[in-house]
Design brief:
single chain; 132 residues; alpha+beta; 10 Kd Chaperonin, Protein Cpn10, Chain O; 4 helices; 8 strands; 23% helix; 25% strand
């Protein structure tokens, strides 16, 4: 998604709008339990977060994730962007290829987030060449 376009949708409650992360270096770092395939998990960058939930006592519970975080969640937990919303996003200048990778997920389905990202293979090779 281009840097100059702000994301036009503000989720409500526990909903998170994110973009599937395609960096192979990040996807290869995830260690999954025996029997779970890599395709069962999605690694995504958070584009926008909801307002959080309200507790029984009436206090607002903040979200555990922030815009820009890289999160991991089961593939079955995410929902794609439907055609009606796609038309609205096109008017805001978001391209169709980006919309294919956008996912909406509930915060309760997020299994974790990365503290730091591993360097991409390209960056690691570039750094190695600079050190020589």
């Amino acid at each position: 998604m281009s840097e100059d376009v702000s994301f036009p949708i503000k989720p409500i409650g526990e909903y998170i709008v994110c973009m599937r992360y395609k960096d192979k270096a990040v996807n290869d770092v995830i260690i999954l339990p025996k029997g779970v395939r890599q395709t069962d998990m999605i690694v995504a960058k958070v584009l926008e977060i909801g307002t959080g939930t309200v507790s029984i006592t009436g206090h607002r519970c903040e979200m555990d994730v922030a815009v820009g975080d890289i999160i991991v969640f089961p593939a079955a937990a995410g929902a794609g962007i439907d055609h009606g919303v796609r038309r609205v996003l096109e008017r805001y200048g978001i391209n169709r290829d980006d919309m294919d990778d956008m996912i909406v997920v509930v915060q309760g389905s997020v299994l974790g987030k990365f503290k730091t990202l591993p360097p991409t293979q390209e960056k690691a090779e570039k750094d190695a060449n600079n050190n020589d």
